[in-house]
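Re: [help] complex structure
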Amino acid sequence: MKSGELTLALIQHGMGADVDANRTASLDGIAEAAARGAQLAVLPELHASEYFCKYQDPALFDLAEPLDGITRRLLAEAAADYKMVVVGGIFEHRAPGLAHNTAIVLECDGSLAGIYRKMHIPDDPGYNEKFYFTPGDLGFEPVDTSVGRLGVLVCWDQWYPEAARLMALAGAEILLYPTAIGFDPADDEAEARRQLDAWCIIQRAHGVANGLPVASCNRAGYEPDRSGGTYNAEFWGHSFVCGPQGEVLAEADAASEVLVCSIDRGRSETVRRTWPFFRDRRIDAYDGLTRRFGD
Amino acid sequence: MKSGELTLALIQHGMGADVDANRTASLDGIAEAAARGAQLAVLPELHASEYFCKYQDPALFDLAEPLDGITRRLLAEAAADYKMVVVGGIFEHRAPGLAHNTAIVLECDGSLAGIYRKMHIPDDPGYNEKFYFTPGDLGFEPVDTSVGRLGVLVCWDQWYPEAARLMALAGAEILLYPTAIGFDPADDEAEARRQLDAWCIIQRAHGVANGLPVASCNRAGYEPDRSGGTYNAEFWGHSFVCGPQGEVLAEADAASEVLVCSIDRGRSETVRRTWPFFRDRRIDAYDGLTRRFGD
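Output below.
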């Protein structure tokens, strides 16, 4: 594991129908992150577009781009310009009829350090991801970079302790979650509060269980359902960074913001000596984790 | 799954050197729980004695008792008297040189519904459990009772998402954690706060990840290190109950208290429809969870 401080930035921003404007917002955020000393910048999931999974429309596959498409090129240029590692997210066109929700990691010379294809795919009213995204086939493999071994996961993965654990067992030094999650306007305030709290604590708990810092970057703002339906979304922002005891180090509110935070990478070693959870895992008794259910 | 309300009580109390007094405190708590309408009472881990694992002493194995020993008999009588399911914890003498940290579940007619032998065994300064307790050999099997299928785990298990998940996959309707955890007097206030927060959020996160209510019953109060050493312990109490979104329903502070809480068992069905995490588990990609580490 690397030691010393790591300064990272979460580029929480809103998206609209104008893809170029979204890209500009992402790049402006990266520039601000660089000016504020960040060595690593994380963008929200699918940051080049509105969250298009609100409904199912084959025409929206036009938004997909190959791994070497324009978003990667722009992020690579920014990474090289600012000598910063950048984690972005694209709608990856892999083959006709085969697309992924993919995080891409650019090294600070602009080269591609690695990718992660979202493994857990949700499908809920307003979040029709199983229509658009083929489940990832690369497993839970961290990406090695000059700022450390990054456990990059995407959104729905954040609800799965298995994903966090597998990244940690594979040597990840930090977990990163580009995300797009928001309130259902039909929910009352208490339900909205429970959902936001649940989202925070489960990711903080991944930090606790694995003795790792965690950073989650969500999109922000209102996006209409452009099909004319009722699945308008209010993305809740609240990007945050926590340490290896789940302690919150920095937290945004609901508005667009570049959240910059320095973490002490040496704390994982210290915390894991006190809480040596890896030592005591009952790997002889975990076979059932690969079963769908026990009945 | 059962529907309707379940009223449960967490009997958070302190322990001293007088074992009879400890048993009386447990039984008094059960009586109060019954008077307040509880159908299920949960006691702290090893509630008949002080937490004896502060240091290593072969003589302390005298505290161990067989599965049909006095603690079970007393709890069975109380369960039958009050027609209540009772979850207690014993230092189980299984054979010479073979002891377990075991939770016992008494049915409301006083019969033994089942047991759980603590699977994850800690070993830290002041918590020398690997000296006393053989790791459990019964796996993560819920116990069926008249108030539902109980996912009974013990203390250190609470840091392991694997344990919670396996109980949930085996059909547990609620997770119960008899516990003994406290502050190290050498830690400063900020560290103590981080530890208590981490303990709360990881258990609440098991509720979120598995769409289940969770109840954790800790011991309370100061216990001296009777070896003359420095491992005095201040057990932090803070027993709590949360619902299937991790929402806190009831919470004790640091003092002894019978915490009574009613939970709506139907909420797991509702919450899991909105957050169908079980549906999307990547059981094809979880083999690595049975490995010690990835290197």
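The longest helix of chain B spans residues 189-210.
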